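Something for you to look into today, if you have time. What I am after is a single protein written out in full by you. I want to see for myself how the chain folds. Could you add the entry underneath, on a fresh line?
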Amino acid sequence: MDSPSRHATPADSDTLIATLVEAFRTDPFWVHFLPDPDPDRAGYAREPALHDIMAAEVGSYVQHGHTHLIDDRAAALWTPPGIRSNDDALAAAFGTHVAPEMVETAIPLFIEMEEYRPTEPHFYLHLIGARDRARGQGLGSVLLERVTSICDAERHPAYLEASTLRSAGLYRRHGFVEVGVVEFAPGVALRPMVRDPA
């Protein structure tokens, strides 16, 4: 790969946010929670809300030293074993931009999803995505392998929630196994997946 991943720092926040906004602009999970009044614009109308949410995500995760970036093309937000990100800013942004009745319905589902998370120390992949022009280039695999190689060397499991069947297929190719499905709406589900060290 001519563009290896590197550790991101707070100075990279704008690039991380822009990358993740583009990556998740048409993701089923965010399409559900941030309905676009103009579907012909392919998600562009939801970008300001998604920007605020991704800014909260990046602000929470980048400080833990396991956020990775490939140029301005792809990014991944991880937490290492024993670390839980403070999600207060994310919860506030989510509550600001998502309809209150949808938030209320989602809370028990988020609680259910938490039950699938390993209890032992593990790496947690919160978000991974690529810009439109960078999809299909193997960048997701590069970002995954950067941390799964550490998992193997240090004997740690890894955990994530896949938001699409396509992404679940990528994760399966890297050793993740689906352990459940949490359905938020018809066709909108997160799939908790765990990877044991190889």
Q: What stands out?
A: DSSP finds seven helices and eight strands in the chain.
